[in-house]
Automatic annotation (TrEMBL):
Flavoprotein keyword on record: yes
Stored InterPro entries: FAD-bd_PCMH, FAD-bd_PCMH-like_sf, FAD-bd_PCMH_sub2, FAD_lactone_oxidase-like, Oxid_FAD_bind_N
Name the UniProt record assigns to this protein: Decaprenylphospho-beta-D-ribofuranose 2-oxidase
Segments forming domain FAD-binding PCMH-type: 14-179
UniProt keyword list: FAD, Flavoprotein
Length: 445
């Protein structure tokens, strides 16, 4: 297989890596090369920070391994290669009455990446995480091929949400869920402030629910936004797929504080006071930004970082404090999301926990890194955790204790990969597999 010297980045483009990258086109080639050159793998790099990067090392680009290998039309079990984009899977099977049970906010996330980060979606409170609907995974661990299932014990829990540290995910079987068609009924409602948002989440019985937050709002309007509730409905997507692209890096002033405030005000007001109901294709509701290719260029050539945390329900006071801090900073972009999560999670290092998850994009400009670091400390103090799929800023000391089962994951990862050959930049930066670091944390030293 050919190895090319490349410089590549996560979706946020604030962190990058350089090294040799191979792009296999067949499972046989992947197996052969991983046997001789074990290294981490990445997909379409829709994770925002450095979880998919291996600076100075080698890596496998899985994007050409994107085939459907088998499908049982009676049970809805499909086997796919790890490079299959979740959105492509949805478009292929929704017309036949089946849909991935859980999908993240972009259809460009691959199946392998969705397993490695145990992604969640707008229906986490009803369907849990992506990994909880996986029934089998084929792992390449150097010259060893291991096929695992939920009955495989610790290796399974270490792989779901395990950041690719138990081996290269080559292919997987997924249990799809029945769906009535390719459409969703969407109800959008203006929400006046954070208290009203929390009540809206508590009162909602919609299978899909998410909130857009105006992160520039302060005072009585703190936490205002738009509440989106949706459900799958029958019907075909008769429209043509339309897409636009951001051709160049936007100038620095494009997301300046005054412009963001004006945009957020207009976006908030686009929904009438009485609310708005519409019927749209599934992908338009679940992947709203995918229609704008290379939208990350809107943040300029320096890129951006996203902060995403989950806070226990009893600490909504900290959520309020975070929003106050963000609003006062004048650093937020228009992309800010609030969701209520259930307790469901698939593995030792899976992000979700019962509570509220807040995600905010920050252009990579002066003061943003310090703000995100402060928000990470606040998350730790509240007993919450940050989402590694989005992080590019945190330090090792800040994430200690956020994941109570990290010790079990470290042991399982060390058994699967004793030479630490599958480590990525994020794993090293946060010392996630450092046994001495873990032991020190347990003793309180």
């Amino acid at each position: 297989m050919a190895w090319n010297n490349l410089t590549y980045a996560g979706w946020g483009r604030a962190r990058s890596a350089s090294g040799k990258v191979a792009r296999p086109e067949r499972q046989s080639a992947l197996s052969r090369d991983v046997a001789t050159t074990p290294a981490p793998a990445f997909g379409l790099r829709r994770s925002y920070g450095d979880v998919a990067l291996n600076d100075g090392g080698t890596a496998y680009d899985m994007s050409r391994l994107d085939r459907v290998l088998s499908f049982d039309a009676e049970t809805g079990v499909v086997e796919v290669e790890a490079g299959m984009p979740v959105g492509a899977l949805a478009r292929s099977f929704a017309k036949h009455g089946w849909l991935p049970a859980v999908m993240p906010g972009t259809g460009f996330a691959t199946v392998g990446g969705s397993i490695a980060n145990d992604v969640h979606g707008k229906n986490h409170h009803t369907e849990g995480t992506f990994g909880q609907h996986v029934t089998e995974i084929t792992l390449l661990q150097g010259n060893r091929v291991e096929i695992i299932t939920p009955e495989s014990g610790t290796i399974w829990q270490a792989t779901i949400g395990g950041l690719g540290q138990t081996g290269v995910i080559a292919k997987a079987k997924l249990q799809l869920m029945p769906c009535p068609g390719e459409l969703m009924k969407l109800r959008e409602t203006r929400i006046a402030n954070l208290d009203a948002f929390l009540k809206a989440f508590d009162d909602s019985d919609a299978p899909y629910a998410v909130g857009w937050i105006d992160a520039t709002a302060t005072g009585d309007r703190l936490g205002r936004g738009i509440f989106e509730e949706s459900e799958l409905v029958a019907g075909r997507d008769a429209g043509k797929e339309h897409s636009r692209a951001v051709p160049l890096n936007a100038p620095g002033w494009a997301l300046s504080a005054p412009i963001v405030r004006l945009f957020n005000e207009a976006y908030y007001r686009r929904i009438p006071a009485r609310g708005k109901t519409s019927v749209k294709p599934i992908w338009d509701v679940l992947f709203p930004l995918d229609a704008i290719h290379d939208w990350n260029r809107l943040y300029g050539k320096r890129g951006f970082n996203q902060f995403q945390c989950v806070i226990p329900p009893e600490r909504v006071d900290m959520l309020r404090t975070m929003l106050e801090r963000i609003g006062a900073s004048h650093l937020a972009s228009p992309l800010a999301v609030l969701k209520k999560m259930g307790a469901a999670r698939g593995g030792y290092m899976s992000f979700p926990m019962a509570g509220y998850t807040l995600a905010v994009d920050f252009p990579n400009r002066d003061g943003a890194t310090e703000l995100i670091s402060d928000l990470t400390d606040m998350t730790h103090d509240a007993g919450g955790r940050i989402y590694f799929a989005k992080d590019g800023v945190a330090e090792a000391a800040q994430v200690k204790g956020m994941y109570p089962e990290q010790g079990d994951w470290v042991k399982a990862a060390a058994k699967a990969d004793p030479g630490n050959l599958f480590e990525t930049d994020l794993v090293r930066r946060l010392e996630l597999r450092d046994i001495a670091h873990m032991a020190q944390d347990e003793t309180g030293a």
